[in-house]
């Protein structure tokens, strides 16, 4: 029974539950949604709900009488099932540094406002927050990522989880095409000499990757797909956990390492020497494809494309942050690109 059917049949129960927990429709849409969600969960789950706190869009921390859990929305039931099965497979392969899905539903699935919801284990965070600013955290993140790939290689080989195949070159070609279509707006904020340099980096990278096929051969793992700092969580006992697998796909582990490199390089002042000092990258710097890929300005294209799609570039504070992230380190990145070119000539 979905939410609409339940509300129609149990409207009296809905009102009674809201009164019992002193909930009101005080702020319109958001509070109305939380009120409906509260009542729905009370009806559908095996635990007694005390409070619901929004974390971000379609993600909530739910407090029950006995414990807390995370409620997360998925766009399809298939996506929810894949996530549940994937985390279970990780545990089976010995990768324990992530959450479990809680079997709290009386009868499933949880379905509300066209979203399917899963109940995830809440992992209390440490006060020692993971950050790419810290050298030791960067190293630990790479070690955890390597362990994750070891586990997902087994899962991929056994075809236990069916996920899309990741195509690195195709993704970057698409990102470049969108960036090019956005140039009329970008030119208003960024001088043409800098934009032209960005395009030179992208062209050199994409042409080089056309010649190298490392992404299409060799080891196959299930990629995490979003190795940003917020997906590494240090928990109360100081262990590091990996979370949020919404973008998993099948591919070469190099793709995750490229993304990780792009995330940490700003904290290394775009120093190729500093990057090569990390053992995980040392071996890849002998791969021509990796050198070409490092040159691609994926973060610059991504952030400008997003800002234009979401129209945040018209907000003074947002455009200030965007320029700081993409234009301010231009000289460092230009030097980084020259170093990559020199490596390919050796």
From TrEMBL:
Tell me which domain of life the UniProt entry assigns to the organism this sequence originates from: Bacteria
The top of its lineage is: Bacteria, Bacillati, Bacillota, Bacilli, Bacillales
User: Protein name, please?
Assistant: Thiamine kinase-like enzyme
- Enumerate the spans annotated as Aminoglycoside phosphotransferase domain: 143-259
Recorded hits in InterPro entries, A to Z, give:
Aminoglycoside_PTrfase, CotS-like, Kinase-like_dom_sf
């Amino acid at each position: 029974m979905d939410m609409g059917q339940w509300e129609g049949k149990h409207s009296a129960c809905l009102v009674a539950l809201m009164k019992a927990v002193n909930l009101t429709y005080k702020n319109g849409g958001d509070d109305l949604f939380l009120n409906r969600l509260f009542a729905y969960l009370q009806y559908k789950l095996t635990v007694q709900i005390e409070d619901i706190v929004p974390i971000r869009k379609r993600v909530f921390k739910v407090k029950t009488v006995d414990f807390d859990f995370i409620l997360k929305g998925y766009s399809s039931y298939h996506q929810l099932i894949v996530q549940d099965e994937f985390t279970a497979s990780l545990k089976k392969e010995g990768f324990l540094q992530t959450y479990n899905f809680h079997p709290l539903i009386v009868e499933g699935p949880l379905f509300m406002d066209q979203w399917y919801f899963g109940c995830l284990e809440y992992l209390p965070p440490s006060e020692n927050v993971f950050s790419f600013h810290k050298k030791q955290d960067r190293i630990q993140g790479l070690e955890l990522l390597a362990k994750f790939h070891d586990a997902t290689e087994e899962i991929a080989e056994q075809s236990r989880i069916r996920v899309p195949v990741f195509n690195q070159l195709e993704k970057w070609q698409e990102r470049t095409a969108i960036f090019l279509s956005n140039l009329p707006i970008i030119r208003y904020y960024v001088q043409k000499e800098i934009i032209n340099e960005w395009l030179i980096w992208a062209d050199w990278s994409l042409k080089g990757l056309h010649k190298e096929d490392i992404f299409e051969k060799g080891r196959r793992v299930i990629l995490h797909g979003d190795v940003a700092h917020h997906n590494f969580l240090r928990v109360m006992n100081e262990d590091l956990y990996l979370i949020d697998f919404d973008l998993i796909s099948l591919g070469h582990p190099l793709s995750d390492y490229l993304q990780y490199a792009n995330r940490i390089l700003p904290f290394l002042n775009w120093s190729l020497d500093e990057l090569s000092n990390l053992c995980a990258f040392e071996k890849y710097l002998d791969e021509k494809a990796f050198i070409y890929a490092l040159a691609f300005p994926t973060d610059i294209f991504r952030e400008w494309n997003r800002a234009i799609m979401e129209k945040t570039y018209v907000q003074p504070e947002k455009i200030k942050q965007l320029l700081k992230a993409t234009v301010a380190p231009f000289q460092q990145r230009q030097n980084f690109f020259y170093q990559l070119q020199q490596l390919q000539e050796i």
